[in-house]
Protein backbone atom coordinates (compact mmCIF):
# COMPACT_ATOMS: atom_id res chain seq x y z
CA UNK A 1 0.00 0.00 0.00
CA UNK A 2 1.24 3.49 -0.86
CA UNK A 3 0.56 6.49 1.32
CA UNK A 4 0.15 9.67 -0.76
CA UNK A 5 0.59 13.18 0.60
CA UNK A 6 -1.32 16.10 -0.89
CA UNK A 7 -1.69 19.81 -0.23
CA UNK A 8 -5.28 21.06 -0.18
CA UNK A 9 -6.67 24.59 -0.36
CA UNK A 10 -8.06 24.83 3.16
CA UNK A 11 -9.23 28.42 2.81
CA UNK A 12 -9.58 30.58 -0.31
CA UNK A 13 -6.78 33.14 -0.53
CA UNK A 14 -7.64 36.64 0.55
CA UNK A 15 -4.89 38.96 -0.60
CA UNK A 16 -1.45 37.37 -0.46
CA UNK A 17 -1.61 33.60 0.37
CA UNK A 18 -0.79 32.52 3.95
CA UNK A 19 0.51 29.24 5.43
CA UNK A 20 -2.86 28.72 7.12
CA UNK A 21 -4.63 28.66 3.70
CA UNK A 22 -3.02 25.28 2.99
CA UNK A 23 -3.35 21.88 4.67
CA UNK A 24 -1.16 18.79 4.23
CA UNK A 25 -3.15 15.55 4.03
CA UNK A 26 -2.17 11.91 3.76
CA UNK A 27 -4.25 9.07 2.29
CA UNK A 28 -3.72 5.41 1.49
CA UNK A 29 -4.07 4.73 -2.24
CA UNK A 30 -6.17 1.73 -3.40
CA UNK A 31 -4.83 -1.26 -5.35
CA UNK A 32 -4.46 -0.79 -9.11
CA UNK A 33 -7.19 -1.99 -11.45
CA UNK A 34 -6.50 -3.12 -15.02
CA UNK A 35 -5.44 -0.07 -17.07
CA UNK A 36 -4.27 1.86 -13.99
CA UNK A 37 -0.82 3.32 -13.40
CA UNK A 38 0.73 4.42 -10.09
CA UNK A 39 2.95 7.49 -10.36
CA UNK A 40 5.32 9.23 -7.98
CA UNK A 41 5.87 12.95 -8.51
CA UNK A 42 9.52 13.83 -9.02
CA UNK A 43 9.23 17.57 -9.68
CA UNK A 44 6.19 19.79 -9.13
CA UNK A 45 5.58 23.19 -10.64
CA UNK A 46 4.53 26.32 -8.77
CA UNK A 47 3.04 28.89 -11.15
CA UNK A 48 1.39 32.33 -10.90
CA UNK A 49 -1.84 31.07 -12.53
CA UNK A 50 -2.56 29.03 -9.38
CA UNK A 51 -3.37 32.25 -7.55
CA UNK A 52 -6.17 33.59 -9.86
CA UNK A 53 -7.37 30.18 -11.02
CA UNK A 54 -7.78 28.86 -7.46
CA UNK A 55 -10.40 31.57 -6.94
CA UNK A 56 -12.10 30.91 -10.28
CA UNK A 57 -12.21 27.12 -10.34
CA UNK A 58 -11.44 25.54 -6.95
CA UNK A 59 -13.45 24.86 -3.82
CA UNK A 60 -12.08 24.89 -0.30
CA UNK A 61 -10.91 21.35 0.45
CA UNK A 62 -9.78 20.65 -3.14
CA UNK A 63 -6.24 19.49 -3.81
CA UNK A 64 -4.16 22.44 -5.05
CA UNK A 65 -4.05 22.50 -8.84
CA UNK A 66 -0.79 21.94 -10.69
CA UNK A 67 1.41 19.86 -12.92
CA UNK A 68 4.29 17.52 -12.20
CA UNK A 69 6.96 15.41 -13.83
CA UNK A 70 6.11 11.96 -12.53
CA UNK A 71 7.57 8.46 -12.84
CA UNK A 72 5.69 5.18 -13.12
CA UNK A 73 6.30 2.99 -10.05
CA UNK A 74 3.67 0.30 -10.71
CA UNK A 75 1.65 -0.36 -13.84
CA UNK A 76 -1.28 -2.36 -15.18
CA UNK A 77 -1.23 -0.37 -18.42
CA UNK A 78 1.14 -1.44 -21.24
CA UNK A 79 1.49 2.14 -22.54
CA UNK A 80 3.19 3.16 -19.26
CA UNK A 81 5.80 0.62 -18.16
CA UNK A 82 7.57 1.08 -14.80
CA UNK A 83 10.23 3.82 -15.07
CA UNK A 84 8.38 5.86 -17.74
CA UNK A 85 8.29 9.64 -17.17
CA UNK A 86 5.29 11.84 -17.95
CA UNK A 87 4.03 15.36 -17.39
CA UNK A 88 0.72 15.09 -15.54
CA UNK A 89 -1.83 17.56 -14.29
CA UNK A 90 -2.60 15.87 -10.97
CA UNK A 91 -2.20 18.69 -8.50
CA UNK A 92 0.05 18.95 -5.47
CA UNK A 93 0.41 15.21 -4.67
CA UNK A 94 3.39 12.96 -4.01
CA UNK A 95 1.68 9.92 -5.60
CA UNK A 96 -1.41 9.39 -7.72
CA UNK A 97 -3.19 6.74 -9.74
CA UNK A 98 -4.11 7.47 -13.36
CA UNK A 99 -6.02 5.58 -16.02
CA UNK A 100 -3.45 6.84 -18.54
CA UNK A 101 -5.59 9.64 -19.98
CA UNK A 102 -4.38 13.27 -20.24
CA UNK A 103 -0.72 12.45 -19.67
CA UNK A 104 2.16 13.71 -21.79
CA UNK A 105 4.94 11.17 -22.24
CA UNK A 106 8.57 12.28 -22.11
CA UNK A 107 9.79 9.56 -24.45
CA UNK A 108 12.96 10.89 -26.13
CA UNK A 109 14.39 13.10 -23.44
CA UNK A 110 18.16 13.66 -23.90
CA UNK A 111 20.21 12.32 -20.97
CA UNK A 112 21.95 15.68 -20.29
CA UNK A 113 18.72 17.72 -20.09
CA UNK A 114 17.06 17.84 -16.63
CA UNK A 115 13.52 16.43 -16.78
CA UNK A 116 12.33 19.34 -14.62
CA UNK A 117 12.62 21.52 -17.74
CA UNK A 118 9.43 19.83 -18.94
CA UNK A 119 7.71 22.13 -16.40
CA UNK A 120 9.62 25.19 -17.59
CA UNK A 121 11.43 26.09 -20.81
CA UNK A 122 10.41 22.84 -22.55
CA UNK A 123 6.93 22.92 -21.06
CA UNK A 124 3.97 25.22 -20.47
CA UNK A 125 5.97 28.42 -19.69
CA UNK A 126 8.27 27.94 -22.71
CA UNK A 127 5.21 27.38 -24.92
CA UNK A 128 3.65 30.56 -23.51
CA UNK A 129 6.73 32.54 -24.51
CA UNK A 130 6.83 30.88 -27.94
CA UNK A 131 3.18 31.41 -28.90
CA UNK A 132 2.89 34.85 -27.31
CA UNK A 133 5.91 36.07 -29.24
CA UNK A 134 5.35 34.38 -32.60
CA UNK A 135 1.53 34.32 -32.77
CA UNK A 136 0.54 37.50 -30.88
CA UNK A 137 3.54 39.86 -31.07
CA UNK A 138 4.38 38.47 -34.54
CA UNK A 139 7.99 39.58 -34.11
CA UNK A 140 10.11 40.58 -37.09
CA UNK A 141 13.91 40.94 -37.21
CA UNK A 142 14.83 44.46 -36.13
CA UNK A 143 11.87 44.89 -33.78
CA UNK A 144 12.47 46.19 -30.26
CA UNK A 145 10.75 43.92 -27.74
CA UNK A 146 10.01 44.81 -24.12
CA UNK A 147 9.35 42.01 -21.60
CA UNK A 148 8.40 42.21 -17.92
CA UNK A 149 9.04 39.58 -15.20
CA UNK A 150 11.92 39.00 -17.61
CA UNK A 151 14.05 36.78 -15.37
CA UNK A 152 11.21 34.34 -14.70
CA UNK A 153 10.06 31.16 -16.40
CA UNK A 154 8.19 32.79 -19.29
CA UNK A 155 10.10 36.09 -19.54
CA UNK A 156 13.58 34.57 -19.76
CA UNK A 157 12.45 32.45 -22.73
CA UNK A 158 10.68 35.39 -24.38
CA UNK A 159 13.92 37.41 -24.36
CA UNK A 160 16.04 34.58 -25.75
CA UNK A 161 13.52 33.68 -28.47
CA UNK A 162 13.32 37.34 -29.49
CA UNK A 163 17.12 37.38 -29.82
CA UNK A 164 16.96 34.23 -31.95
CA UNK A 165 14.40 36.14 -34.06
CA UNK A 166 16.83 39.05 -34.61
CA UNK A 167 15.18 41.56 -32.26
CA UNK A 168 16.56 44.04 -29.75
CA UNK A 169 15.36 42.99 -26.29
CA UNK A 170 14.74 45.07 -23.17
CA UNK A 171 13.88 43.28 -19.92
CA UNK A 172 12.71 44.44 -16.50
CA UNK A 173 13.07 42.47 -13.30
CA UNK A 174 12.87 43.01 -9.56
CA UNK A 175 16.49 42.64 -8.36
CA UNK A 176 20.02 43.56 -9.46
CA UNK A 177 20.94 39.86 -9.50
CA UNK A 178 18.12 39.23 -11.99
CA UNK A 179 19.22 42.19 -14.11
CA UNK A 180 22.79 40.82 -14.24
CA UNK A 181 21.38 37.44 -15.29
CA UNK A 182 19.38 39.03 -18.12
CA UNK A 183 22.54 40.64 -19.52
CA UNK A 184 24.33 37.30 -19.20
CA UNK A 185 21.71 35.51 -21.33
CA UNK A 186 21.80 38.11 -24.08
CA UNK A 187 19.25 40.83 -23.26
CA UNK A 188 20.45 44.09 -24.84
CA UNK A 189 19.15 46.25 -22.01
CA UNK A 190 17.78 45.41 -18.58
CA UNK A 191 16.81 47.36 -15.47
CA UNK A 192 15.49 46.84 -11.96
CA UNK A 193 11.96 48.26 -11.97
CA UNK A 194 11.97 48.46 -8.16
CA UNK A 195 14.97 50.78 -7.88
CA UNK A 196 14.90 53.01 -11.00
CA UNK A 197 13.77 56.49 -10.03
CA UNK A 198 11.38 56.84 -12.98
CA UNK A 199 10.01 53.91 -14.98
CA UNK A 200 9.27 56.25 -17.84
CA UNK A 201 12.88 57.49 -17.99
CA UNK A 202 14.27 53.95 -17.68
CA UNK A 203 12.12 52.75 -20.59
CA UNK A 204 13.13 55.77 -22.69
CA UNK A 205 16.82 55.29 -21.92
CA UNK A 206 16.66 51.60 -22.85
CA UNK A 207 14.99 52.35 -26.21
CA UNK A 208 14.73 56.05 -27.11
CA UNK A 209 12.71 55.23 -30.27
CA UNK A 210 10.10 53.23 -28.34
CA UNK A 211 8.93 49.63 -28.61
CA UNK A 212 7.44 47.55 -31.41
CA UNK A 213 6.33 44.73 -29.11
CA UNK A 214 5.49 44.48 -25.43
CA UNK A 215 5.23 41.04 -23.84
CA UNK A 216 3.25 41.95 -20.74
CA UNK A 217 3.58 39.59 -17.79
CA UNK A 218 2.68 42.03 -15.02
CA UNK A 219 -0.05 44.52 -16.01
CA UNK A 220 -0.81 47.37 -13.59
CA UNK A 221 1.08 50.63 -13.36
CA UNK A 222 4.13 49.41 -15.27
CA UNK A 223 2.00 48.54 -18.29
CA UNK A 224 0.18 51.87 -18.25
CA UNK A 225 3.55 53.58 -18.52
CA UNK A 226 4.90 51.17 -21.15
CA UNK A 227 1.82 51.61 -23.35
CA UNK A 228 2.74 55.25 -23.89
CA UNK A 229 6.11 54.25 -25.29
CA UNK A 230 4.87 51.91 -27.99
CA UNK A 231 5.69 52.75 -31.60
CA UNK A 232 2.97 53.17 -34.21
CA UNK A 233 1.30 49.81 -34.98
CA UNK A 234 2.94 48.28 -31.89
CA UNK A 235 1.77 44.85 -30.69
CA UNK A 236 1.08 44.01 -27.03
CA UNK A 237 0.74 40.41 -25.88
CA UNK A 238 -1.20 40.39 -22.61
CA UNK A 239 0.21 37.23 -21.08
CA UNK A 240 -0.23 37.86 -17.36
CA UNK A 241 -1.09 40.48 -14.78
CA UNK A 242 0.78 39.25 -11.72
CA UNK A 243 0.96 42.73 -10.19
CA UNK A 244 -2.80 42.42 -9.52
CA UNK A 245 -3.26 38.74 -8.64
CA UNK A 246 -3.25 39.36 -4.89
CA UNK A 247 -5.29 42.56 -4.95
CA UNK A 248 -8.49 42.51 -2.94
CA UNK A 249 -9.67 45.69 -4.69
CA UNK A 250 -9.11 45.77 -8.49
CA UNK A 251 -6.56 48.34 -9.70
CA UNK A 252 -7.86 51.41 -11.53
CA UNK A 253 -6.54 53.06 -14.76
CA UNK A 254 -5.05 55.18 -16.43
CA UNK A 255 -6.98 53.60 -19.27
CA UNK A 256 -5.66 52.26 -22.52
CA UNK A 257 -7.82 53.93 -25.18
CA UNK A 258 -5.84 57.12 -25.83
CA UNK A 259 -2.40 55.53 -26.46
CA UNK A 260 -4.03 52.64 -28.34
CA UNK A 261 -5.95 55.00 -30.59
CA UNK A 262 -3.23 57.47 -31.49
CA UNK A 263 -0.50 54.88 -31.97
CA UNK A 264 -2.87 52.37 -33.62
CA UNK A 265 -1.78 49.60 -31.25
CA UNK A 266 -2.96 46.00 -31.15
CA UNK A 267 -3.40 44.44 -27.70
CA UNK A 268 -4.46 40.82 -27.32
CA UNK A 269 -4.81 38.57 -24.30
CA UNK A 270 -4.04 34.89 -24.73
CA UNK A 271 -3.96 31.58 -22.90
CA UNK A 272 -1.26 29.16 -23.97
CA UNK A 273 -3.68 26.26 -24.51
CA UNK A 274 -5.12 28.08 -27.55
CA UNK A 275 -2.36 26.45 -29.63
CA UNK A 276 -2.58 22.91 -28.26
CA UNK A 277 -2.64 21.65 -31.85
CA UNK A 278 0.89 23.07 -32.36
CA UNK A 279 2.18 22.03 -28.92
CA UNK A 280 4.35 19.07 -29.96
CA UNK A 281 6.00 20.92 -32.84
CA UNK A 282 6.77 23.92 -30.59
CA UNK A 283 8.19 21.69 -27.82
CA UNK A 284 10.52 20.01 -30.34
CA UNK A 285 11.84 23.41 -31.41
CA UNK A 286 12.31 24.56 -27.80
CA UNK A 287 14.13 21.32 -26.92
CA UNK A 288 16.39 21.70 -29.97
CA UNK A 289 17.32 25.27 -29.00
CA UNK A 290 18.07 24.16 -25.43
CA UNK A 291 20.24 21.24 -26.65
CA UNK A 292 22.11 23.59 -29.03
CA UNK A 293 22.71 26.05 -26.17
CA UNK A 294 20.72 28.80 -27.90
CA UNK A 295 18.32 28.99 -24.95
CA UNK A 296 19.84 28.95 -21.45
CA UNK A 297 17.69 27.68 -18.60
CA UNK A 298 17.82 28.61 -14.95
CA UNK A 299 15.73 26.91 -12.26
CA UNK A 300 14.92 27.84 -8.69
CA UNK A 301 14.60 24.45 -7.03
CA UNK A 302 13.03 24.06 -3.58
CA UNK A 303 13.68 20.65 -1.98
CA UNK A 304 10.85 18.84 -0.21
CA UNK A 305 7.14 18.34 -0.85
CA UNK A 306 6.42 19.87 2.57
CA UNK A 307 7.71 23.18 1.21
CA UNK A 308 5.17 23.47 -1.66
CA UNK A 309 3.27 26.43 -0.10
CA UNK A 310 6.54 28.22 0.74
CA UNK A 311 7.82 27.70 -2.81
CA UNK A 312 4.54 29.02 -4.25
CA UNK A 313 4.47 32.10 -2.04
CA UNK A 314 8.21 32.69 -2.64
CA UNK A 315 7.61 32.69 -6.42
CA UNK A 316 4.76 35.20 -6.03
CA UNK A 317 7.16 37.43 -4.03
CA UNK A 318 9.83 37.20 -6.73
CA UNK A 319 12.32 34.93 -4.93
CA UNK A 320 12.82 32.82 -8.05
CA UNK A 321 15.41 33.35 -10.79
CA UNK A 322 14.16 31.23 -13.69
CA UNK A 323 11.48 28.58 -13.27
CA UNK A 324 10.30 27.82 -9.73
CA UNK A 325 9.98 24.05 -9.14
CA UNK A 326 9.83 21.74 -6.15
CA UNK A 327 11.88 18.53 -6.01
CA UNK A 328 10.01 15.96 -3.98
N1 LIG B 1 -1.37 33.50 -20.62
C1 LIG B 1 -0.89 32.30 -20.33
O1 LIG B 1 -1.26 31.29 -20.93
C2 LIG B 1 0.15 32.21 -19.28
C3 LIG B 1 0.43 33.31 -18.53
N2 LIG B 1 1.41 33.28 -17.58
C4 LIG B 1 1.68 34.52 -16.88
O2 LIG B 1 3.01 34.93 -17.18
C5 LIG B 1 3.55 35.68 -16.09
C6 LIG B 1 4.90 35.08 -15.69
O3 LIG B 1 4.69 33.74 -15.27
P1 LIG B 1 5.96 32.82 -14.91
O4 LIG B 1 7.04 33.09 -15.86
O5 LIG B 1 5.46 31.44 -14.76
O6 LIG B 1 6.36 33.35 -13.49
P2 LIG B 1 7.80 33.87 -13.03
O7 LIG B 1 8.78 32.77 -13.09
O8 LIG B 1 8.11 35.10 -13.84
O9 LIG B 1 7.55 34.25 -11.51
C7 LIG B 1 6.74 35.31 -11.17
C8 LIG B 1 7.52 36.63 -11.15
O10 LIG B 1 6.62 37.71 -11.20
C9 LIG B 1 7.27 38.85 -10.69
N3 LIG B 1 6.34 39.63 -9.86
C10 LIG B 1 5.73 39.26 -8.74
N4 LIG B 1 4.96 40.26 -8.27
C11 LIG B 1 5.10 41.28 -9.13
C12 LIG B 1 4.58 42.62 -9.19
N5 LIG B 1 3.75 43.08 -8.26
N6 LIG B 1 4.98 43.40 -10.23
C13 LIG B 1 5.82 42.93 -11.17
N7 LIG B 1 6.35 41.69 -11.16
C14 LIG B 1 5.99 40.88 -10.16
C15 LIG B 1 8.46 38.36 -9.86
O11 LIG B 1 9.64 38.72 -10.52
P3 LIG B 1 10.40 40.13 -10.20
O12 LIG B 1 11.41 39.81 -9.12
O13 LIG B 1 11.02 40.48 -11.49
O14 LIG B 1 9.35 41.09 -9.72
C16 LIG B 1 8.32 36.83 -9.88
O15 LIG B 1 9.56 36.19 -9.91
C17 LIG B 1 2.50 35.60 -14.98
O16 LIG B 1 1.74 36.79 -15.03
C18 LIG B 1 1.64 34.44 -15.37
O17 LIG B 1 0.33 34.53 -14.87
C19 LIG B 1 2.16 32.16 -17.35
C20 LIG B 1 1.90 31.01 -18.05
C21 LIG B 1 0.83 30.93 -19.03
C1 LIG C 1 -2.65 24.82 -16.86
C2 LIG C 1 -1.99 26.01 -17.49
C3 LIG C 1 -2.90 27.22 -17.60
C4 LIG C 1 -2.06 28.41 -17.94
C5 LIG C 1 -2.86 29.64 -18.08
C6 LIG C 1 -2.21 30.73 -17.35
C7 LIG C 1 -2.75 31.90 -17.23
C8 LIG C 1 -2.13 32.89 -16.41
O1 LIG C 1 -1.15 32.67 -15.71
UniProtKB/TrEMBL annotation:
<dbReference type="InterPro" id="IPR036291">
    <property type="entry name" value="NAD(P)-bd_dom_sf"/>
</dbReference>
<keyword id="KW-0521">NADP</keyword>
<dbReference type="InterPro" id="IPR041694">
    <property type="entry name" value="ADH_N_2"/>
</dbReference>
<dbReference type="InterPro" id="IPR013149">
    <property type="entry name" value="ADH-like_C"/>
</dbReference>
<protein>
    <recommendedName>
        <fullName>Prostaglandin reductase 1</fullName>
        <ecNumber>1.3.1.48</ecNumber>
        <ecNumber>1.3.1.74</ecNumber>
    </recommendedName>
</protein>
<dbReference type="Pfam" id="PF00107">
    <property type="entry name" value="ADH_zinc_N"/>
</dbReference>
<dbReference type="Pfam" id="PF16884">
    <property type="entry name" value="ADH_N_2"/>
</dbReference>
<keyword id="KW-0443">Lipid metabolism</keyword>
<dbReference type="InterPro" id="IPR014190">
    <property type="entry name" value="PTGR1"/>
</dbReference>
<keyword id="KW-0644">Prostaglandin metabolism</keyword>
<dbReference type="GO" id="GO:0006693">
    <property type="term" value="P:prostaglandin metabolic process"/>
</dbReference>
<dbReference type="InterPro" id="IPR011032">
    <property type="entry name" value="GroES-like_sf"/>
</dbReference>
<feature type="domain" description="Enoyl reductase (ER)">
    <location>
        <begin position="15"/>
        <end position="326"/>
    </location>
</feature>
<dbReference type="GO" id="GO:0005737">
    <property type="term" value="C:cytoplasm"/>
</dbReference>
<keyword id="KW-0379">Hydroxylation</keyword>
<dbReference type="InterPro" id="IPR045010">
    <property type="entry name" value="MDR_fam"/>
</dbReference>
<dbReference type="InterPro" id="IPR020843">
    <property type="entry name" value="ER"/>
</dbReference>
<dbReference type="GO" id="GO:0047522">
    <property type="term" value="F:15-oxoprostaglandin 13-reductase [NAD(P)+] activity"/>
</dbReference>
<comment type="similarity">
    <text>Belongs to the NADP-dependent oxidoreductase L4BD family.</text>
</comment>
<keyword id="KW-0276">Fatty acid metabolism</keyword>
<keyword id="KW-0560">Oxidoreductase</keyword>
<keyword id="KW-0007">Acetylation</keyword>
<comment type="subunit">
    <text>Monomer or homodimer.</text>
</comment>
<dbReference type="GO" id="GO:0035798">
    <property type="term" value="F:2-alkenal reductase (NADPH) activity"/>
</dbReference>
<keyword id="KW-0597">Phosphoprotein</keyword>
<keyword id="KW-0963">Cytoplasm</keyword>
Amino acid sequence: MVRAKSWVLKKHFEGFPKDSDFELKEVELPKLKDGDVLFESVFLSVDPYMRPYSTRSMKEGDTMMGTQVARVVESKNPTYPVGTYVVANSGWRTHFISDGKDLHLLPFWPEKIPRSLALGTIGMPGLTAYFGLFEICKIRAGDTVLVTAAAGAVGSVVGQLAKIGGCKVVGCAGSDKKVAYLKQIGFDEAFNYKTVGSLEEALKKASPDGYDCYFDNVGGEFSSIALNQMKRFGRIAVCGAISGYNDTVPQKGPYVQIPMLFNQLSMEGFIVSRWNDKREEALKRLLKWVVEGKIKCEEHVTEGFEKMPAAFMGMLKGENLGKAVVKV
